[in-house]
């Protein structure tokens, strides 16, 4: 929140006064009152920020405008890193003072979530016959028909192929064409359900390397064609790899495929371990694919539907496209503020973090690429708040330096 001042008087004296009180142990409430007095009498613009060390005013900002006073109030910011509390945000930043000075953050836009595209790679080898297959297919059909999945895009592929024309069941070319192309739900649900119903678990082997390689080729190509989407692969299997030449049956080699896709253009690999699978082996693939570990349903295949919901929530976790600023002004990436407005209408600014490592346990947001940002990423604490408030919204305002985590 900002005070807009009409003139500048005795800046040095006020700066000394602010530092003296800030480091002298006064409670921030008292200091805010003193700062307000400074503004009223001296025309100084003060910026309220809650630093990690609890100092209420670490810097004071001077307005060079001329004319009348812009007025305003001051909120006491919470300390970043101390929990889920977010900094107060001035929803009136779009107005200008009576002296004709333009207010900061005059332009803004709603932050739209990144679209999620899911490619499912399902094991249909003979060991999946019975409960494993019935549970897995029922869960996938439930997932694509779930109203909560509406708006995401889903495609599917199965392995192994039956009697390939070249006799090479591990040839990745047999798996880089999806059985059902990626399409939006719910429109794509009937085609996905029909495809699942038309498959059966009678494959003779588990060519994990070739299947994963082909599926990841398809996923990374889809990501190249849709750079503003988040693309993930969900790989579900109940067995250990076989039927591939050389070291292609070794887990480190298979995990290397997932890492290559992640490094290439950010495609993540989620893994579901079905009864009969080596969880430790599949954990390695998941970790290499950027998702830490596999979803273990080896003791109960009926948990597959729940795990698919968890994957959907995690993959949708708070990535937003950077909106274009309105007007002809270019985007100033160092002058973007992110505001969350709850379903109850309470607006708070989310402080900016440097990157994911800087998030800690407190609220925050950061750019996916600080030099050429395409997405705004929410830190886990802020993501939890936003996801827990489906009626809320996220906005990005341009023109002001953000609060810093």
Computed over alpha carbons, the radius of gyration is 27 Å
Overall body shape: elongated
CATH third-level topology of the largest domain: Rossmann fold
How many separate structural domains? 3
What is the CATH C level class of the largest domain, in words? Alpha Beta
Number of helices, where a helix is a run of at least 4 consecutive DSSP H or I residues: 9
- In order across it, which strands form the biggest sheet? 5-4-3-6-7-8
How far do the termini sit from each other? 15 Å
Which range best describes the helical content: under 10%, 10-25%, 25-40%, 40-55%, 55-70% or over 70%? Answer: 25-40%
Looking at CATH, the homologous superfamily of the largest domain is von Willebrand factor, type A domain
Q: Topology as H/E string?
A: HHEEEHEEHHEHEHEHEEEEEHE
CATH architectural designation of the largest domain = 3-Layer(aba) Sandwich
Strand content: 15-25%
Major sheet, described briefly? 6 strands, mixed
> How many beta-strand elements?
14
Mean pLDDT: 78
Outline the low-pLDDT stretches. 1-102
């Amino acid at each position: 929140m900002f005070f807009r001042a009409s003139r500048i008087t005795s800046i040095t004296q006020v700066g000394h006064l602010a530092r003296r009180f800030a480091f002298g142990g006064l409670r921030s409430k008292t200091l805010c009152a003193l700062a307000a007095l400074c503004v009223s009498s001296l025309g100084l613009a003060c910026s309220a920020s809650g630093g990690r060390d609890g100092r209420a005013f670490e810097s004071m900002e001077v307005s060079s405008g001329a004319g009348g006073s812009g007025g305003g109030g001051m909120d006491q910011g919470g300390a970043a890193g101390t929990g889920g509390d977010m900094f107060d945000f001035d929803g009136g930043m779009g107005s200008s003072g009576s002296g004709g000075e333009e207010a900061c953050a005059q332009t803004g836009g709603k932050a739209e979530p990144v679209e999620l595209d899911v490619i499912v790679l399902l094991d249909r080898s003979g060991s999946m016959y019975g409960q494993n297959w019935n549970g897995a297919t029922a869960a996938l059909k439930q997932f694509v028909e779930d109203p909560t999945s509406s708006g995401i895009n889903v495609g599917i592929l199965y392995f192994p192929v039956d009697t390939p024309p070249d006799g090479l069941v591990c040839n990745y070319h047999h798996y880089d064409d999806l059985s059902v192309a990626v399409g939006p739900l719910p429109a794509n649900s009937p085609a996905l359900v029909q495809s699942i119903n038309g498959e059966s678990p009678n494959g003779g082997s588990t060519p994990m390397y070739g299947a994963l390689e082909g599926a990841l080729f398809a996923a990374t190509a889809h990501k190249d064609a849709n750079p503003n989407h988040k693309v993930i692969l969900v790989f579900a299997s109940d067995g250990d790899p076989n039927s591939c030449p050389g070291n292609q049956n070794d887990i480190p080699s298979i995990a290397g495929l997932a890492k290559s896709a992640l490094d290439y253009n950010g495609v993540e690999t989620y893994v579901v371990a079905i009864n009969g699978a080596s969880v430790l082996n599949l954990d390695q693939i998941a970790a290499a694919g950027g998702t830490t570990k596999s979803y273990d349903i080896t003791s109960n295949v009926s948990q597959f539907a729940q795990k698919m919901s968890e994957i959907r929530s995690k993959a949708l976790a708070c990535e937003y496209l950077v909106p274009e600023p309105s007007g002809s002004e270019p985007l100033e990436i160092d002058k973007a503020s992110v505001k969350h407005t709850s379903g109850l209408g309470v607006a708070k600014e989310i402080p900016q973090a440097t990157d994911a490592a800087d998030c800690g346990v407190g609220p925050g947001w950061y750019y996916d690429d600080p030099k050429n940002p395409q997405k705004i990423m929410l830190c886990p604490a802020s993501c939890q708040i936003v996801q827990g408030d489906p009626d809320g919204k996220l906005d990005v305002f341009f023109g002001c330096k953000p609060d810093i985590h």
